[in-house]
Description:
Blueprint (H helix, E strand, L loop, with lengths): L10 E2 L3 E3 L7 H9 L8 H18 L3 E6 L5 E8 L9 E6 L8 H15 L4 E7 L3 H9 L3 E8 L2 E9 L2
Antiparallel strand pairs: 1-2, 2-3, 3-4, 4-5, 6-8, 7-8
Amino acid sequence: MPAYETMPFHLETERLILRPWAESDAAEFCALLSERGDGTPTVAHIRTAIAKLLTETAATGIALLPVQRRDEGDFIGYCGLITGRSTLEEPEIAYELFQRVHGRGYATEAARAVLDAAAATGRKRLWSTVGTWNTPSLRVLEKLGFERDHVSTEDNGEVVWLTRSLP
């Protein structure tokens, strides 16, 4: 297995800061996840999830990072690398933002910073998986140079698998 550099865990763009998780992110993370329509997890559950994310980050050298707007300082979602449905050698890029900030280019901006961070680790390819219904996320990935690889059917519907080679 090739050795990869550790991904930077603090990324900045013109409008955004991506940084490590803090326990204080739990309430906002709960609110974000509740927008999925599957109920609202408890703050205690999310604190446990954040601790698990931090442990996984230490073990893998890749991270899913909270996204906050630079000027406002507010938590608006997350973006980063996960193993998810793929592997540590070819991780998935994942992102989710509050609906109130959709359509402003934040997902593209955050994901572009994560792409650069992934390339700096020495990885050669990333994956992403998105529900076929999620046209806005598919547009973000296409802007970033991801190409459709295949579609699978899962319990919650069809999922598009996309890939992108890294420089």
